[in-house]
Amino acid sequence: MLNIVVVGPGLMGKQHIERIEATSGMVLSAVVAPASSVNRDYVARLNVPMFSDLGRCIEFQKPDGVIIASPNKFHTEQAIVCIKHDIPVLIEKPLATCLKEGRRIVDFAKERDFVHKVMVGHHRAYSPLIQHACRIIESGRVGSLVTVQGSAQFYKPECYFVEGEWRTRLGGGPILINMIHEVGNLRKLIGEIESVQVISSSERRGYEVEDTAVMNFRFENGVLGSFVLSDTAASTQSWELTSAENPSYPHYAEENCYSISGTLGTLDIPTMNIKAYASSDTASWMEAFDEYDAPVDRQDPLLLQLEHFKQMLNGDEGPVVSVWDGYCNLAVVEAIKQAEESGCLERVVY
After folding, report:
1. Burial class (CB in 10 A: 0-12, 13-18, 19+), 41
2. How many CA atoms lie within 13 A of 153 on its CB side?
3. Which residues are CB-contacts of 227 (< 8 A; sequence separation ≥ 6)?
């Protein structure tokens, strides 16, 4: 039985705790959190000890693995504590608050030869939808990739901002809060992002931070992409409302949030609808596409991620989303923010 410590019983921490209880071969051994009455009451119901200090928890509990789901500003120091103690760790996204802090984790993991025991919680990488889309692209069914169009548009109610006023100020906004998910998907599906260009607006909500942004991407493999992001556009076109992977959201089964086009055809995600020519010999805008669906069973990617964490702890596999992947996702988001501020095309510095 693998003993797991969860750091931070917030929104994501509780999600991990629920899934640990549902995963065979794993048990929650302790929770690390500030000693507030809310935390004490919650952890008491779990019937496990609570610690306010991760190092002390590791000393007493000697866990097989740690999941860091604390606020982002604590990720770096807590990850370093785990690596120092040779404890495999799953760090929630984003890896850190900034590239400098993320680099500290990457460098320390390399220095300790522990990169193979550090994974970052970009759980959509485990989604059967994303994995199936990658297989379709790799098969050449849509030809050589040319463009990608993406959307993450949703209407967040006013209570979302009242309950978390920080979301209205610098450090909030959908680029920093939501785009890290989308960057992970784009890098997984298409490849490394070379440069970005951004136009943003706060016209509708009037906060310090953007409520809407339009982004252009150039990928290292020559693919060009565009992406629309908004937390004030009432739309179905987001991963949350199309993927059916989170029961907290309604599901619109006929809608898509990504469209990937190549020299032979187009793949729409997550409907997995393909419109493609049979071969380059028949490809012409004057000819009709062959059209069909490539369905896939949908599963909980958070649970699949935890199963993979278990395999990593047992030494059977390395991380799917490595500490370097987490760092690269953060690098793209920082380039997006730079491009938003400068109004210029910005290269991504990895």
Report:
1. exposed
2. 17
3. 149, 150, 151, 152, 182, 186, 214, 215, 216, 217
The torsion region of residue 252 among left (phi > 0), alpha (psi -120 to 50) and beta comes to beta
Q: CA torsion sign, 87 to 88 to 91 to 97?
A: positive
What fold is seen in the domain 2-124+302-321? Rossmann fold (3.40.50)
Beta strands, E only, 180-288? 193-201, 212-219, 224-230, 258-262, 265-269, 273-276
Give the CA radius of gyration of the chain: 21
* Phi and psi at residue 81, to the nearest 5°: -60, -45
Neighbours of 71 (CB within 10 A): 10
**Residue with token string 């989604």:** 127
CATH code reported for the domain at 125-299+331-347: 3.30.360.10
Q: At what angle do helices 75-84 and 99-111 cross, to 10 degrees?
A: 0
Global pTM exceeds 0.90? yes
Question: How far is Cα 106 from Cα 104, in angstroms, rounded to an integer?
Answer: 6
Q: What strands lie across the sheet with 346-347, from one edge to the other?
A: 290-293, 273-276, 265-269, 258-262, 145-153, 224-230, 212-219, 193-201, 346-347
Asked if 146 contacts 262 with a C-beta cutoff of 8 angstroms, the reply is yes
Q: What tokens does 135 get?
A: 């297989």
List the domain boundaries for the chain. 2-124+302-321, 125-299+331-347
Give per-residue pLDDT as tens, 69-92.
Answer: 998 899 999 999 999 999 999 999
Question: Distance (Å, rounded) from C-alpha 225 to C-alpha 147?
Answer: 5
Model pLDDT for residues 153-177, shown as the tens digit of each residue:
999 999 998 887 888 888 888 998 8
